[in-house]
Amino acid sequence: MNTLVGVGVGPGDPDLVTVKAANLLAKADVVFVPVADSGETGRAEQTALFYAEAWRVERVVFALHDREHTARREHAWDAAAAQVARWFAAHPDGTAAFATIGDPCVYSTFTYLAATVRDLVGELDVQLIPGITAMQDLAARSGTPLVEGRETLSLFPMTAGADRFREALNRGDAVVAYKFGRMLPETLAVLRETGRLDGAVYGAGLGLVEEDVRPAADLDPDTPGPYLSTLIVPPARTGRGGAL
Ligand SMILES: C[S@@+](CC[C@H](N)C(=O)[O-])C[C@H]1O[C@@H](n2cnc3c(N)ncnc32)[C@H](O)[C@@H]1O
User: Fold this and answer.
1) pTM of the model
2) Could you identify the atom of ligand 1 that is nearest to the CA of residue 205?
3) Which UniProt keywords apply (predicted)?
4) How far is the CA of 105 from the centre of ligand 1 (A)?
C-alpha cells in the first residue's frame, strides 16, 4: 500500500520535533517539503534536513501564501499533487513523508495535497503525525499560559477579517492570532481599541535565527511584521486559580 504521512515539524526549532516525527523523517523513502517558487530554503525543509539526508528530501513548489491569485494557487496544488503521485508510480508501496510547519491539522496545506494525491493514485493510506504549533512555542518562550481554568481559546487567522477578531477580544476569550504579518498595524489597532494590548505577547520567526519575542505593546504601531508572526492575547487574570 502507498503511504503518505503528513508530519508536523514544529515552528522552526529542530529540538521541537517529536520523536515519532524524527523517526519517520529518518526512515521514509522520500521526504517532500513545500517550498515557494523563490528558490529559498523552505521553513519545513530547514527542519526536515536535521533528520533526513538531503538526497531523500524532494522539494515541491507550493503556493504557500498566494491568497490573491486563486487560479495560480489551484494550479500549484495540482502540480504539487501530480509530483507526489509520480513518485508513488515509480515507488509502489513506498512511504512518503510530507513535512509541514507546526501541526499538519492546523492551517496546513497538507490536507489539500493528500486529497488530490489520493484522487490521482487511487490506493493511498494517509496518516498524520502531530507537531508543536507556533502558539504553543510562543506560550512557552514568553511564559504565557494559553488558557487556565474555565477560560476559552479562540484561534484566529487575521485573514478572516478584523471584525471577528474584535468580537473574540470583546468576549474576553484568550485569543491567538495567526497570519497577520502584513496586517500588524491593523491588528495592533484592534487590540488597543478593545483594551487588550497590555498583556498581549508577540513572537516572530520562533525557533529561527531572526526570532523576536516581546510584549505587543512594544511594537511599532505602523510597521508590518513578517509572515511568521503569532500573537497571544491572554484574558485578564486575577492570580492563582482565579479562572477555576
Ligand atoms: C499556514 S499557518 C501554519 C500554522 C502551523 N501549521 C501551526 O501549527 O502552527 C502559518 C502561520 O503560523 C504561524 N507561525 C508558524 N510558524 C511560526 C514561527 N516560526 N514563528 C511565528 N509564527 C509562526 C504564523 O502566524 C503564520 O502566519
Assistant:
1) 0.93
2) 20
3) Cobalamin biosynthesis, Methyltransferase, S-adenosyl-L-methionine, Transferase
4) 12
The CATH number corresponding to 3-129 among 3.40.50.10860, 3.10.100.10, 3.40.1010.10, 3.10.129.10 equals: 3.40.1010.10
136 pocket-lining for ligand 1 (C-beta < 6 Å): no
Chain segment 120-172, per-residue pLDDT in tens: 998 999 999 999 999 999 999 999 999 999 999 999 999 999 999 999 999 98
Domain 134-233 coded CATH 2.60.40.10: no
Q: Say yes or no: CB of residue 179 within 6 Å of ligand 1.
A: yes
Per-residue DSSP letters for 186-219?
HHHHHHHHTT--TT-EEEESTTSTT-EEEEGGGS
In the three-class reduction of DSSP (H, G, I as helix; E, B as strand; rest coil), residue 156 is classed as: strand
Tell how far the Cα of 101 is from the centroid of ligand 1, in angstroms.
7
Residue at grid coordinates 477579517? 161
109 lines ligand 1 (CB under 6 A): no
